[in-house]
Amino acid sequence: MKAWDIFYQNISQNGFVIHGDKIILSVSGGMDSMCMLHLFWRLAKKMDIVLLAVNFNHNLRKESVKEAKTVKDLSAEFGIDCLLEEIDVKEYSKKHSLSVETAGRNLRYLILERIAKKYKCNKIATAHNANDNAETVLMRFLRGSGNFAGIPQKRKISRNLVVIRPLLPVKRKLIEEYVRNHKLPFCTDKSNFSDVYTRNKIRLSLMPIFEKINPMAVEHIFALSCIQYRENAYLEEISAKFLKKCAKKQKNRILFDLKTFLRYNETIRFRILKNLLPQKKYNSHINLIMRKILLSDTSVYRLSAGWIFKIKLDKACFIRN
Q1: CA of 178: how far to CAs of 18, 37, 80, 110, in Å?
Q2: Where is the tRNA(Ile)-lysidine/2-thiocytidine synthase N-terminal domain (predicted)?
Q3: Cα dihedral sign, 86-89-94-97
Q4: Domain 3-225 fold
Q5: Other Cβ atoms closer than 10 A to 234
């Protein structure tokens, strides 16, 4: 199947886009997002939808000005309104003690939500593809997170706003082919070829090996992440119900009954702890707390500078310092 066929099938089968939608397209100017811009332009000929393109200049690279112009020009050619936003990622990352990558993502979504509210848009579309998903799954695998759900195709971020990723089942090779065939302009971010970032190391070094072993590696990882996503959703629903029965959240502490907690399946207990942890929701912390509970270890465990964990009789408690 071609990029358009997968994109249109994904949207139709999953109801990601319906008549009357007002959709923000987050367009960086790279190959993936320019492909998405063209796909949605074609979709708008079939459906009654309104599109608004948004480009972000992170003030990190000189090329950003050229990228913004490329996005604006193609949007104008398609008759799509386009907003150019400038954000100070370095300042935001310093202020909030975040990596530049995380700061950029957080800022983009903050501004996208603001734009959605102003222009009464109900959906935000991003151009993540099947390779991005495979890289995310492998990153989590290497970090030992235990979560192979990958990038969600749909995520609700507020009452009236949903993020959709309709290109997620589409491989990067198909996107490259689509862009070539339609002679779409795009810009190349040179930082994508730097081996400083873990994601780039996986993209440039690991993924070619995986695809050499099995040319269907990206598709199989996507299928795995879909299975995990469905199972996660089911287990989270059950865990949330059980959490209400055994735990009580207060302003400066989280108290839970161990007798009730220990009656649950190990998987449910793990998820309950992950949801209860006020900070640092890492597997290592969850496993350590679980051991303390099973061994009735009453010593105080410092979870972070702001929180401690302790056990007293048949109760366990997270307490804010």
Answers
A1: 24, 12, 20, 31
A2: 22-203
A3: positive
A4: Rossmann fold (3.40.50)
A5: 9
Max Cα separation, the chain? 70
The pLDDT, as a whole number, for residue 196 is 73
Q: Which residue has the tokens 């939500």?
A: 113
Taking 50 as the pLDDT cut, the residues of the chain under it are none
Contact 316, 256 (CB under 8 A): yes
Residue stretches of the annotated binding site: 28-33
Residues in the chain: 321
- Residue 280, pLDDT score: 65
Thinking of the domain 250-320, which architecture would CATH place it in?
2-Layer Sandwich (3.30)
Could you list the residues known to form a binding site for ATP, using ranges: 28-33
The residue whose two tokens read 């907003």 is: 83
Task: Answer for the pair 36, 167: CB distance below 8 angstroms, yes or no.
Answer: yes
Both structure tokens of 168: 């997620």
Task: Count Cβ atoms within 10 A of the Cβ of residue 153 and give its class: 0-12 exposed, 13-18 middle, 19 or more buried.
Answer: buried
Q: Which sequence spans correspond to the domains of the chain? A: 3-225, 250-320
pLDDT tens for 185-195 read 999 877 777 77
Rg of the Cα trace of the chain?
22
Task: Find tokens 């102003």 and name the residue.
Answer: 118
Question: Which pair of tokens denotes residue 144?
Answer: 């030992």
d(CA 200, CA 209): 14
Say what the alpha-carbon torsion angle 315, 318, 320, 321 is, to the nearest 10 degrees: 80
Do the beta carbons of residue 55 and residue 82 sit within 8 Å? yes
CA–CA separation, 150 vs 153, rounded Å? 9
Q: How far apart are CA 98 and CA 106, in angstroms?
A: 10
Question: How far is C-alpha 287 from the geometric centre of its chain's CA atoms?
Answer: 25
